[in-house]
């Protein structure tokens, strides 16, 4: 028996399975999709069995054996094997990378601790039965050594055993040692009566336990609740009062969140959308829906009811959200409706917890998975629905090998299972809306808010005028007035800073020097909590300088309007205001994000002040004002999607206002009110923005009119980086048709990260049948030759920015 194994050897130039001989004692257990350890070069590496063959070209004396089998039940399903083939083609990754990304990190390495088998034995021999019982848990190691297997086999031969069934693999579960009170009250009484009166503690214990027939307790619980000490417990266990068992439990960090909500009566628009979706479910057709609904139109309710139908049919649903830690309200709604049937794949979970969730999904113990990008690989085997909420978010694209987009994987899986995909957004990605226009996706529109509230009124404030009016505050006259009103009326508001959480840099007022990372071409950012400057690319840290490193001036200051600065400004202007600030600094602790939102929801603050992390998913009835401190920040990014992202962000935050009974108002402060992304965000109708942006994309040959490939090359030596970028672009130019546009090589927008100099080339094309082959050859060249010379190269077929 010969297994074909994809090995985990990074940067090996050849992407194909290798043949390994399966040792005899492994033959009965090994299956396609199992992880193995195999010798490769001078060491053992992890591998995935992808198939079996009878013959091999490898000469007998060269053929090596599988050294270890790591799984009894395959972790890679047939679907995943097929998906990995597709992904290697789609993203130009190697198969090993595709397989690895589908698994929880615990399974990406050698992970065999506590792997156990539950073996069901059908005994004939009473002695053996007494020894093992009907079911027995066997450490997997014993199987591997073939000892146990031999024992069992010979037992079958000797007719002591009839059958041996390996029921399932017990993953890494936490087992809790418990004392189980036996369930015969009569017998307990008898034991008690036979005890001498001097055994007072034992008698007391038995009396207490008599009221808890058949129940299980940890020794700690017994000590606390009934004062039964460990030694007493041991003694009475020996008398037969109960027994110790290892109860296996899943770690469930979310158990406290379970609640219950009922399905809402749908609006007409919602119910039309839902019925289109359920129709394709009934027809078992793979259809991709673009659910384009204004903020507050009740997209989530449509998801929930579509999921309900999926569950009713015995199928499973996958729900993706952009960043799960930032969307606690969203997750709560799924938990609220489906309770224990929901698994939440949260980045805050430990490796073990993630693995447990993964196993629950694999065993079908849950029906719904809510998670960020990687949850798209949830190992369900009967998928009935896939949802991407806020489908335009760039977090759905993985910026690391394999560079897949969750949207593509969703559509691939929907075709595998013949089920629908719902892409939901108030501001769809241009690519998606274009596909909907062409009829590739099925467009569903929700134009009204669910409770027929009006969309908020949006006012654009030109901050240049404020200066002319002599207002030097960071609050425009309009915004200040609006805040004052809300404080008086005891309504709540959101103030939004269009920035990532970190934004303060240190600048010398005398010479203009900005303190930079010594390894990267990027300014260091100030973190108040650690009182240090940190690089967000390499993690480098240093103390805040007291004088300028260039001119030694002492006039060196923090710069950039950070949330902290706005907070103190609010307190200055509105001393009575209560503020909750939400940014990377205040949400670093586990659960802090949820806690802050809870406090805000409970009315413990008037103002929620935050960065991009508050743009998503907030649904509080009392918010009547949203203020955007400065809309321009994201417009100035060197990114062809800058306008699109700005528009999306402004629409998102605006959508937080007036979602319930109270009407909402939005004030956007900007220095470029004439920019179309800002002007059109005011109208809150998507189509005009779409038209305008598409015109520009066509003019400059950007996606979605053109496809783009981004090749990035880095090297510690700037000359080498430039040289190999040149070689890469020559290679592409020589091998592709003259239909493609090749831009570069140029220095990347951040020209140095971690002391590596970075260059890039951009390929723009409409149709280029040769493209994949040429790029594969380039990658092979890189892997065989360039990599040894210290070059790093990445190829991205669908870059989200460049
Ligand atoms: P979206 O996800 O489109 O922004 P939500 O699903 O958050 O919108 O819905 C906005 C608000 O409207 C929520 O408070 C939700 O509970 C409520 N809602 C949604 N659908 C209905 C409905 N059919 N009837 C009443 N309220 C609804
Ligand atoms: Zn200086
Ligand atoms: Zn750095």
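-> sequence recovered:
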């Amino acid at each position: 028996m010969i297994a074909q194994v994809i090995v985990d050897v990074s940067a090996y130039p050849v992407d194909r399975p290798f043949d390994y001989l399966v040792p005899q004692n492994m033959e009965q257990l090994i299956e396609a999709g199992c992880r193995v350890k195999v010798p490769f070069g001078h060491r053992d590496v992890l591998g995935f069995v992808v198939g079996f063959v009878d013959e091999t070209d490898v000469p007998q004396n060269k053929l090596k054996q599988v050294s270890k089998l790591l799984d009894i039940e395959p972790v890679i399903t047939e679907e995943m094997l097929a998906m990995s083939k597709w992904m290697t083609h789609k993203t130009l990754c190697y198969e090993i990378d595709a397989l690895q990304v589908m698994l929880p990190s615990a399974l990406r390495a050698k992970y065999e601790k506590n792997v156990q088998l539950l073996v069901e034995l059908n005994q004939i021999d009473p002695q053996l039965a007494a020894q093992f019982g009907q079911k027995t848990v066997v450490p997997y190691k014993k199987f591997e050594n073939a000892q146990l297997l031999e024992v069992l086999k010979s037992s079958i031969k000797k007719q002591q055993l009839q059958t041996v069934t390996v029921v399932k693999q017990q993953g890494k579960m936490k087992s809790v040692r418990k004392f189980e009170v036996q369930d015969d009250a009569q017998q307990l009484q008898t034991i008690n009566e036979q005890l001498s009166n001097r055994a007072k503690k034992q008698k007391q214990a038995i009396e207490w336990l008599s009221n808890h027939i058949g129940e299980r307790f940890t020794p700690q619980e017994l000590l606390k609740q009934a004062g039964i000490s460990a030694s007493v417990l041991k003694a009475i266990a020996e008398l037969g009062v109960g027994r110790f068992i290892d109860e296996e439990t899943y770690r469930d960090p979310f158990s406290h969140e379970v609640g219950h909500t009922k399905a809402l009566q749908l609006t007409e628009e919602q119910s039309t959308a839902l019925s289109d979706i359920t129709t394709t479910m009934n027809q078992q057709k793979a259809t991709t829906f673009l659910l384009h609904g204004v903020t507050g139109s009740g997209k989530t309710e449509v998801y929930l009811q579509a999921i309900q139908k999926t569950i009713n049919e015995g199928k499973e649903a996958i729900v993706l959200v952009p960043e799960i830690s930032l969307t606690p309200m969203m997750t709560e709604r799924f938990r609220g409706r489906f309770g224990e049937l929901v698994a939440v794949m949260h980045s805050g979970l430990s490796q073990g917890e993630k693995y447990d969730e993964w196993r629950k999904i694999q065993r079908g113990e849950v029906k719904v998975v809510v998670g960020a990008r990687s949850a798209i690989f949830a190992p369900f085997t009967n998928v009935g629905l896939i949802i991407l909420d806020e489908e335009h978010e760039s977090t759905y694209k993985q910026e690391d090998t394999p560079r897949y987009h969750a949207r593509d994987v969703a559509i691939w899986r929907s075709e595998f299972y013949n089920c629908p995909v719902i892409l939901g957004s108030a501001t769809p990605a241009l690519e998606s809306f274009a596909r909907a226009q062409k009829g590739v996706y099925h467009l569903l529109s929700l134009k009204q808010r669910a409770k027929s509230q009006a969309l908020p009124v949006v006012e654009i404030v030109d901050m240049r005028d404020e200066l002319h009016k002599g207002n030097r505050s960071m609050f425009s006259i309009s915004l200040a007035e609006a805040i004052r009103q809300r404080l008086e009326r005891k309504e709540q508001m959101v103030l939004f800073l269009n920035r990532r959480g970190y934004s303060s840099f240190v600048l010398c007022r005398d010479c203009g020097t900005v303190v930079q990372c010594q390894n990267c071409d990027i300014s260091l950012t100030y973190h108040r909590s650690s009182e240090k400057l940190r690089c967000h690319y390499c993690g480098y840290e240093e103390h805040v300088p007291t004088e300028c490193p260039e001119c030694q001036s002492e006039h060196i200051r923090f710069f950039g309007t950070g949330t902290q600065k706005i907070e103190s400004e609010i307190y200055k202007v509105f001393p009575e205001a209560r503020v909750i600030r939400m940014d990377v600094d205040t949400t670093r602790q586990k659960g802090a994000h949820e806690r802050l939102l809870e406090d805000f929801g409970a009315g413990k603050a008037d103002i929620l002040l935050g960065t991009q992390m508050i743009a998503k998913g907030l649904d509080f009835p009392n918010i009547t004002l949203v203020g955007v401190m400065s809309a321009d920040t994201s417009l100035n990014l060197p990114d062809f999607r800058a306008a699109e992202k700005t528009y999306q962000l402004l629409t998102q935050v605006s959508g937080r206002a007036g979602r319930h009974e109270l009407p909402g108002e939005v004030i956007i402060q900007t220095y470029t009110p004439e920019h179309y992304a800002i002007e059109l965000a005011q109208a809150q109708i998507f189509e005009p923005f779409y038209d305008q942006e598409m015109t520009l994309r066509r003019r400059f040959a950007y996606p979605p009119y053109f496809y783009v490939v981004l090749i990035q090359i880095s090297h510690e030596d700037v000359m080498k980086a430039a040289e190999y970028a040149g070689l890469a672009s020559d290679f592409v130019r020589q091998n592709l048709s003259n239909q493609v546009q090749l831009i570069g090589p140029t220095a990347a927008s951040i020209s140095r990260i971690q002391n590596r100099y970075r260059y890039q080339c951009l390929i723009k094309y409409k149709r280029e049948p040769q493209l994949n082959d040429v790029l594969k050859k380039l990658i092979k060249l890189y892997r065989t030759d360039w990599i040894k010379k210290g070059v790093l190269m990445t190829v991205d077929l669908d870059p989200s920015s460049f």
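DSSP finds 25 helices and 33 strands in the chain.
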